[in-house]
Design brief:
This protein has 358 residues and is of the alpha/beta class. It has 2 domains: 124 residues, 3-Layer(aba) Sandwich (Rossmann fold); 169 residues, Dihydrodipicolinate Reductase, domain 2, CATH 3.30.360.10. Helices cover 30% and strands 21% of the residues. It contains 11 helices and 13 strands. The strands form 2 sheets. Strands 8-9-7-10-13-12-11 form a 7-stranded mixed sheet. Strands 2-1-3-4-6-5 form a 6-stranded parallel sheet, sandwiched between helices. Helix 6 links the parallel strand 5 and strand 6. The chain starts with 8 loop residues before the first strand and ends in a 16-residue tail after the last helix. Bound molecules: NADP nicotinamide-adenine-dinucleotide phosphate.
């Protein structure tokens, strides 16, 4: 029998002590074609990874190293998972050294450099890289991802919103200027740094609106829905913190563009868009208790569940999308992009189906 040498791609995780970094490690550790060369953290440098990510005890033998470019430079690909505004210089240096970068923050998602001043309050130092970056949503940009050296992984609530919206908007089923998104998100969406809003007595049991107007994810939702489905998109977006740790549910309320679409109209447009997608599931079965998307059953999984309802009384189309914010909303989606770049099975490392009951 011949011996086949398995090609392992060397990857590093920059910002590995955070929630997204932890999910990247969890997923990459189960990937058959990956060798993790470094996991960085300033706060926990020198400490075993499992002291911060207890689920990785006996799974990961690594210790954190200082977040320095030299510590990750022997990898082929670096996943950067830093707070927004912190990735720009690191990413530029890594690209200059010939590495590929999959960035999970917001620093390369927007194409218009001036949008960074408006939405993020800083002048982008490398506008030329915004041109080069590919928005890492495989369902919209698979071909560009294949040859990209810089991937900008979408924001979590943006991913869910875009996946729900693009097919019906593209098919002219909803009025592009009458789209209102109500999003619900769990506490891990805010990252692992302690804050007053996230402090247990303040956060527990909330159904708390936050940033009900002007949320930053509007910028990328409008950018991507416009790219895919044409201009004139106006989005009202209002997120709420709810009492879960993982998960996002977006509920989109939209007016029809003409006559109210039928159920077959919506089925058809979603089927056409997503039938071949490995991680999109259509969930609409009014006879079942799990008949519409619910993030509870997506914990740890890379699926995005999409559903819809039609309300003739209020002349309204209602669209739903549920994801795990840390998986399809961040680390899982990033690994899906990685698989596409390297020609691996898109599902490699991402087969965990979630739990039931959860
Ligand atoms: N949480 C989500 O659901 C989610 C979903 C999609 C996208 N994102 C985005 O992903 C990124 C990471 O999110 P997160 O939730 O994992 O945040 P987090 O839990 O706060 O983790 C942040 C990580 O960045 C490191 N870090 C902070 N400042 C740094 C700097 N200047 N240089 C090097 N490392 C630095 C931290 O490491 P040390 O402090 O230990 O050094 C930590 O590992 C953010 O941009 C976030 O918006 C998050």
């Amino acid at each position: 029998m011949e011996d086949y040498e398995v090609r392992l791609v060397k990857v590093a995780v920059y910002g590995a002590s955070g929630y997204v970094g932890g999910e990247l490690l969890r997923i990459l550790l189960s990937h058959s074609s990956v060798e993790i060369t470094a996991a960085t953290s300033k706060r926990f440098s020198g400490m075993p990874v499992h002291k911060v990510h207890p689920n990785l005890r006996k799974v990961c033998q690594m210790s954190f190293v200082e977040p320095k470019v030299e510590n990750v430079a022997n990898a082929e690909v670096v996943f950067t998972a830093l707070p927004h505004g912190q990735s720009t210089h690191v990413v530029k240096t890594l690209l200059d050294r010939g590495l590929k970068v999959i960035d999970l923050g917001a620093d390369f998602r927007l194409k218009d450099p001036s949008a960074y001043e408006k939405w993020y309050g800083f002048k982008h130092p490398y506008p030329e890289l915004l041109e080069k970056a590919v928005y890492g949503l495989p369902e919209l940009h698979r071909d560009e991802i294949r040859t990209a050296s810089l991937i900008a992984v979408p924001g979590c609530m943006a991913s869910a919103s875009i996946l729900a919206l693009v097919p019906p908007v593209k098919n002219g089923l909803v009025d592009r200027s009458q789209i209102f998104i109500d999003a619900k998100i769990g506490s891990s969406g805010a990252g692992s740094s302690p804050t007053l809003e996230g402090y247990h007595p303040e956060r527990y049991n909330v159904v708390r609106p936050y940033k009900p107007a002007g949320h930053r994810h509007v910028a990328e939702i409008v950018q991507e829905v416009s790219n895919a489905a044409g201009g004139g998109i106006v989005i009202g977006f209002s997120p709420h913190s709810v009492n879960i740790v993982r998960g996002i549910l977006v509920t989109v309320h939209a007016r029809p563009s003409g006559r109210l679409p039928s159920f077959p109209d919506l089925w058809r447009c979603y089927r056409q868009a997503y039938d071949k997608e490995p991680f999109i599931r259509l969930v609409r079965d009014p006879t079942m208790v799990h008949g519409l998307p619910d993030p509870k059953y997506l914990m740890g999984s890379n699926f995005a569940d999409i559903g819809f309802e039609i309300d003739a009384d209020s002349n309204r189309v209602i669209l739903f999308a549920a994801i795990d914010n840390l998986v399809k909303g961040a680390a899982g989606n990033a690994v899906q992009c990685f698989n596409i770049i390297f020609g691996f099975d898109e599902k490699e490392g991402l087969t965990f189906p979630g739990l039931h009951p959860a």
